[in-house]
Amino acid sequence: MFTWLNGSLARAILFPLITIVVISVSALVYYVNKSSYELVLESETRAAGSQADAIRSALGLFIADSTATAKSLASRDDVIASFKDKTDGNTRILAKLAKSNPNLWGGIAFDTSGMAIAGSTRDGATLTGLDISGRDYVRAVLEGKSEFVSEVFRAKSGQDLIFAISVPVYDEQRNLLGGVALLGGWEGFTKEFIDPVVIGHEGYAFILDSDGRLIHHPKDESLILKNQRNTVFAQEALRRQNGVVFYDWQGDSKVMVFRTDPHTGWVICMSAYEEDLAAGAVRQGYTLAGVGAVSVLIIIALIVMLLRRLVVAPVTMGMDVSAKMAEGDLRSRTESDSANELGRLMRSLGRMTRSLKDIVARVKGAAELVAAGSEELAAAAEQMSEGSTEQAASVEQIAASMEEMTANITQNTHRVKQTEDLAVQTAQNATEGGEAVRQTVEAMRNIADRTSIIEEIARQTNLLALNAAIEAARAGEHGKGFAVVAAEVRKLAERSGVAASEISELTGNSLHIAEKAGQMLETMVTDIDRNKELVQEVNVASQQQNDAAQQISESIQHLDTVVQKNASLSEEVSATSQELSGQAVQLQETMEFFKLDVDHSPGSNGRKQIRAETKKSPKAEPKALPYREVNEEEFERF
């Protein structure tokens, strides 16, 4: 199916459109038909309900009139007197009443035992002497009901359908004497109010009593007085009392509208086939279906005509032009006066064809120039390859020289580093020597201080020895031993003083020399520190020079690699230019596939114009590119 639709643009457009139109019109017809069907059915149902209401009202009036007549009869004095005297006066009264009232079949008076003491039909037949004690309308009155309406039943004297309306008869002391029952002619009421009713074309009315018996049916008299409680419609009517029911009857759908009389419980039913009630809507549906079919055909015809004129024809023209273009024929002209999208598409296709003609003509001319330029490019590439080879040899020599210079700089850097280490160690040793001299000077000063103390002690000892000698002299003989000791002590004190003086003199001379040596060492430490700093600066400069030399060496190595690659690429460019020349010739042969008008042929004027445009293009000056590491994979191989 999908393949069949794709086989034709008309089918691909028409099929969905026609499908949508058919579905839309069908849906509209279905909706209108269904709405009309429901509206007509609802209208007919309401009309049937109105008729049922009218029949119910008529039945109510009929029952009420007969009840009023019976009550009026039961209250008459002559009727009461006839009950008391047991005369046949009531028979005459009832016969006269039955003849004068067409709605009555007859009348009957009964005593408290249920025996008919008087009675007559409208035909004059007597009902006196009948035992009617078993009738429900007799029992109801004798049991005390003020009035009672019986169900429909057949008279014993014939096949007439009648119903009884009975009321009690009391004397002046409200003693029950018996009752009076008026027998209504049911067939007269149904002929006047039920039989003329027609619903739709075949519908009719019927009545069910409170027990579900069919008390009137205009179509089938054999159903009368038969119980229909087992049927769906009867069950619904008795359960709901008023309303509408849809039910299936012998395979067909029927509608029944029913109303219940509140006095008797009888159900007035209006029944008809659903199709009969909605026959007008069905005919209208057929008409709408016909109109819809004609409308669909007209719409389809208009769509087909417009589609062929506005879509299929321009698309077919575009297909022909595209087919010729696919064969290389660019001589077709495409024009359209239509203002719609397809018209603009055809005009755009024409412009595209003209542009393609110009492009093909220019490409043919450019192919000739490419062929000539590729030969020149091959010669230039060969020269460039030779120059690159020579440049590569020069760069290799420079690289070797730079490597030797870098090795020398590296060796000098190591030596400067060793010198720096020695200068640092010498500065450290000088600093430690200066510190030792400073400590020596400090120790000598301390010794000088201690020597002065010894001299003071010797002097004090000499004084004490002198005092001891004086005291020994004063003591006389007793102090001679002490005088000898004092003399020895004095000698020792003098010797100690002389030794302390000599030590003090030596210490002073040594202190002067040590201080001078300390000053010289301080000057020497300062010079050594300065020398260390200079050596460190030389070391840093050597390292920087070494780093720069290594960077230059690496750059030259990269340059050597680039030059080598350039030489290789120059050879490849030379080979590529030769291949490009062959491709240009093949391009010329390929472009011969296109057929152009005479105006678009690539003549000498076209080639001259292309050459002129090529020569007019500004020649770019070569500029040095910043160095970066070259990866061989970045170059394109031909």
Q: What's a concise summary of this model?
A:
The chain is of the alpha+beta class. 67% of the residues lie in helices and 11% in strands. Helix 2 (9-74) runs antiparallel to helix 9 (279-326).
Task: Give structural notes.
This protein has 638 residues and is α+β, with helices and mostly antiparallel strands. The protein folds into 2 domains: 248 residues, Beta-Lactamase (2-Layer Sandwich); 218 residues, Methyl-accepting chemotaxis protein (Helix Hairpins, Orthogonal Bundle), CATH 1.10.287. 67% of the residues lie in helices and 11% in strands. It is built from 12 helices and 11 strands. Strands 1, 2, 3, 4, 5 and 6 form a 6-stranded antiparallel β-sheet that branches. Helix 2 runs antiparallel to helix 9. It is elongated. 23% of the residues are buried. The C terminus is likely disordered.
